[in-house]
């Protein structure tokens, strides 16, 4: 209730027209407040939206999910797959005026590998060392072939921060990040706003039309949409599915969508501290029972008006990486009860945390009602998103309704969550056979060979269910009709190159 009151208070301020907003400011409503703004430490989806304006990467993706140049203009692999040589732009500076060059790339890779708090360690684990050939040429030396590395460098592992600023700030770098993107960090007020100023020295400055971009965390989707209609924000991400018809019928608004690369599900604590010691955490039969108790299609219709894609794996059913041998199971309450009886766990009680977002609340209420019919009594625990993530890391949860925005390479949807040392394995699920399969999929550049590994992993995970997958999002955006040139991407990011606002 307190968070809702804060959100409504913020909305009221916005509708009055805050003093720091002006015509050259693009205002974007976010569904959550990002966590720390350090590419090596952060993990939130909304944080990546901010980074799209703040921190350029070595490589980028196209709307068709091709890897394309960004700070690196080209790259080549050695015949044995152990050396990646990248050519860099020669006209890039960081926001503090420091030069971007091969030395800076080497520093960033080493920081991702060695910073104690880095969540990118598993993403760059295949990198043994770097060799600076000259100012615009970097050689990345691998311990073994890694088919995923280029895709990792198209995300946070490839975001370049100023070595000088990072060294000076240490672990506190995220309080005032210094990168090489189109906008520079100006200020942040937690749960209120993040303001970035246009960087005049940006290598592609002509593509940027705004003096500032302001990100406003407005958790309540109804309030977000009300702010858009009032003209107090210019666009919002994650429009509620139930509002799609209303936005489409509003001549003052635009609607955009893109099927996502990620998933939403329930992450179960199986080995992360004392709270893992529950029937749900210790017995896969209980987890399978919970999955069988959920009617995913009914959930989709009730909560999302049918616009999402139901799922049961880390890849959506339309993905070439999906294992069709394990389709989404129909709801079977009797089978769920039988599994619970076999496990000696009839009429159990579990806690599942989620955010106060009304959509997430409704989703969990639907799951709660369905599970109760099988004898699984769910208590819904509401936590602010950053608290939810912090508690997951610390093991302060039994289960958590949470998702992942998805990555271009399939490895990005599964390795970090389900390998023993995965940087975001909050469940602490650990099975050497899964490690072998997922590590093996990283080595080959042959898609067929990789598919065999992912299929074998899916067969094991369908039985063990450390993550109970529920659905795959369709990204939904609503924009003022004054916003022109916006291109939706399947990764859900908001890229502002080429975007303008007409008066």
Description of the structure:
- This protein has 503 residues and is of the alpha+beta class.
- It has three domains: 2-54 and 181-260 and 475-501, 3-Layer(aba) Sandwich (D-Maltodextrin-Binding Protein, domain 2), CATH 3.40.190.10; 59-163, Dipeptide-binding Protein, Domain 1 (Dipeptide-binding Protein, domain 1, Alpha-Beta Complex), CATH 3.90.76; 263-472, Dipeptide-binding Protein, Domain 3 (Dipeptide-binding Protein, domain 3).
- Helix content is 31%, strand content 22%.
- It is built from 16 helices and 21 strands.
- Strands 8-9-10-1-11-19-12 form a seven-stranded mixed β-sheet, with helices on both faces. A six-stranded mixed β-sheet has the order 14-18-13-17-15-16, with helices on both faces.
- It is globular.
- It starts with a helix and ends with a strand.
Features:
31% helix, disordered N terminus, globular, 503 residues, 21 strands, Dipeptide-binding Protein, domain 1, D-Maltodextrin-Binding Protein, domain 2, Dipeptide-binding Protein, domain 3, seven-stranded mixed beta sheet, alpha+beta, six-stranded mixed beta sheet, 22% strand, 3 domains
| The top level CATH class name of the largest domain | Alpha Beta
Unreliable stretches:
1-23
CATH architecture of the largest domain: Roll
Shape: globular
Give the distance, in angstroms, between the N- and C-terminal Cα atoms: 38 Å
Please provide the count of β strands: 21
Which whole number gives the mean pLDDT?
93
Oligomeric grouping of the chains: single chain
CATH superfamily of the largest domain: Dipeptide-binding Protein, Domain 3
- Strand arrangement in the largest pleated sheet: 8-9-10-1-11-19-12
Query: Main sheet, how many strands, which sense, barrel?
Result: 7 strands, mixed
**What is the CATH topology descriptor of the largest domain?**
Dipeptide-binding Protein, domain 3
| Rg calc | 23 Å
Structural class: alpha+beta
Helix content: 25-40%
Treating each run of at least 4 consecutive H or I residues as one helix, how many helices? 16
Whole-number total of structural domains: 3
């Amino acid at each position: 209730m307190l968070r809702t009151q804060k959100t409504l208070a913020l909305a009221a301020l916005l509708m009055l027209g805050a003093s720091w907003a002006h015509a050259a400011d693009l205002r974007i409503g976010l569904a959550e407040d990002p966590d720390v703004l350090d590419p090596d430490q952060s993990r939130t989806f909304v944080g990546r939206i901010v980074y799209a304006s703040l921190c350029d990467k070595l490589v980028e993706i196209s709307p068709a999910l091709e890897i394309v140049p960004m700070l690196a203009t080209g790259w080549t692999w050695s015949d044995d797959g152990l050396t990646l040589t990248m050519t860099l732009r020669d006209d890039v500076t960081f926001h503090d005026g420091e030069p971007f060059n091969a030395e800076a790339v080497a520093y960033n890779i080493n920081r991702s590998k060695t910073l104690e708090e880095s969540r990118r360690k598993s993403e760059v684990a295949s990198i043994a060392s770097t060799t600076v050939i000259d100012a615009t040429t970097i050689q990345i030396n691998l311990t073994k072939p890694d088919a995923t590395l280029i895709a990792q460098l198209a995300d946070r592992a490839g975001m370049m921060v100023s070595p000088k600023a990072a060294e000076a700030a240490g672990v506190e770098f995220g309080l005032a990040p210094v990168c090489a993107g189109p906008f520079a960090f100006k200020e942040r007020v937690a749960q209120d706003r993040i303001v970035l100023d246009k960087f005049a020295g940006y290598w592609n400055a002509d593509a940027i039309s705004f003096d500032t971009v302001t990100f406003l965390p407005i958790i309540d989707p109804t309030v977000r949409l009300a702010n858009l209609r009032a003209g107090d924000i210019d666009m919002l991400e994650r429009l509620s599915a139930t509002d799609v018809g209303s936005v489409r019928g509003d001549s003052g608004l635009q609607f955009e969508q893109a099927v996502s690369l990620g998933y939403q599900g329930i992450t179960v604590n199986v080995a992360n501290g004392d709270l893992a010691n529950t029937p749900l955490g210790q017995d896969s039969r209980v987890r399978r029972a919970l999955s069988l108790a959920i009617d995913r299609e009914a959930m989709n219709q009730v909560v999302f008006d049918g616009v999402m894609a139901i799922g049961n794996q880390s890849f959506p059913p339309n993905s070439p990486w999906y294992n069709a041998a394990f389709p989404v199971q129909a709801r079977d309450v009797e089978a769920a009860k039988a599994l619970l009886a076999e496990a000696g766990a009839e009429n159990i009680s579990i806690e599942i945390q989620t955010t106060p977002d009304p959509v997430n609340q409704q989703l969990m209420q639907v799951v709660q009602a369905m599970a109760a019919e099988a004898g699984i009594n769910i208590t819904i625990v509401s936590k602010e998103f950053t608290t939810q993530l912090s508690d997951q890391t610390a093991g302060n949860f039994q289960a958590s309704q949470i998702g992942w925005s998805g990555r271009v390479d399939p490895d990005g949807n599964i390795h970090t969550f389900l390998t023993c040392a995965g940087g975001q394995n909050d469940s602490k699920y650990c099975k050497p056979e899964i490690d072998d399969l997922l590590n093996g999929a990283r080595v080959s550049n042959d898609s067929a060979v990789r598919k065999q590994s992912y299929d074998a992993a899916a067969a094991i995970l369908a039985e063990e269910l450390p993550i109970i997958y529920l659905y795959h999002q369709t990204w939904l955006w609503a924009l003022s009709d004054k916003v022109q040139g916006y291109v939706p991407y399947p990764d859900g990011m908001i890229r502002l190159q080429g975007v303008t606002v007409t008066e």
